[in-house]
Amino acid sequence: MTNYKAKICILTSAHPAFNTRVFHKQARSIARAGYETVMVVPHEEACSVDGVRISPLPVNGGRASRMLLTVPRLIARAISEKADIYHFHDPELMPAGLLLKLLGKRVVYDVHEHYRTKILSKPWLPKAARVPIAFAVDAFESAASLAYDGVVTVDGHIAKKFCGRAVIVSNFPYAPEGFEKAAPVKRRDVEFRLVYVGGLSGERGLYKMVEAMGQVDGDIRLYLAGKFSSQALEKAKKIMGFERVVWLGVVPWRKSIELQNSA
């Protein structure tokens, strides 16, 4: 008699394949625990990394094409994988989660943000529409989550919404295998380096960081690793202090650890 290896299918339409939370913290951990692990995600090619099989979807640019093209393809691919458990990471996939439940699957919803609050600050939504959309999404999320088999959140504040049903997997940073704790950096003969890795937007403190650089003296630089929206980048460029900013774009996970160790 052979031991059955359960198959876990991780679904995301909005995150890159090697996202820190989705891939490095969760998918790799699931694979190390002995489960067959597959990710259905927009990516350039099929591959297998650290025991995780990447099942790629076409990479479409823009929010509209993602909703109209990527999500339906993701649902079809997810069903074809015939997994035992589906773990999805984006609120736009909540209907997909309900469909998978109707098909008799076990479904876990991973809640990365307090989406009602998040929607209220979305610049691409008309201001008059933000409040009704935010409350509609919030109500749908509350109702749909009752149908799912599990809910994962990033902190206790969000977990309270799910009335004790949520498991917290925090977004604390951690060092990858093979990286020792960095020794204190002595930079007396070179620039003083500040480093930020993550989403680059006003709600995450981008403009305050750039403003702070306009109030310091000496050879000081702020290194930013992450993705700007076009509007955020243009606004940041106009703030006094941006001349001290070094923008590196999106960097690989291990490179981001090295960068932070250099700060």
Q: How would you sum up this structure, described in words?
A:
- The chain has 263 residues and is α/β, with parallel strands linked by helices.
- It is built from nine helices and eleven strands.
- The strands form two sheets. Strands 3-4-2-1-5-6-7-8 form an eight-stranded mixed β-sheet. Strands 9-10-11 form a three-stranded parallel β-sheet, with helices on both faces.
Write the layout of secondary structure elements.
Layout: E1 7-11, H1 20-32, E2 36-42, E3 47-49, E4 52-57, H2 63-81, E5 85-88, H3 94-102, E6 106-111, H4 115-120, H5 127-145, E7 150-153, H6 156-159, E8 166-168, E9 192-197, H7 206-213, E10 220-225, H8 230-237, E11 245-249, H9 253-261
Parallel strand pairs: 1-2, 1-5, 2-4, 5-6, 6-7, 7-8, 9-10, 10-11
Antiparallel strand pairs: 3-4
> What's the oligomerization state?
single chain
Which series of helices and strands comes N to C?
Answer: EHEEEHEHEHHEHEEHEHEH
Give the proportion of residues in helices.
25-40%
Order of strands, main sheet, comes to 3-4-2-1-5-6-7-8
Whole-number radius of gyration?
20 Å
Specify the structural class. alpha/beta
Largest sheet: 8 strands, mixed
The number of distinct β-strands equals 11
Tell me the distance between the termini.
54 Å
What is the residue-mean pLDDT, rounded to a whole number?
A: 89
Which geometry do the CA atoms define?
A: globular
Strand content: 15-25%
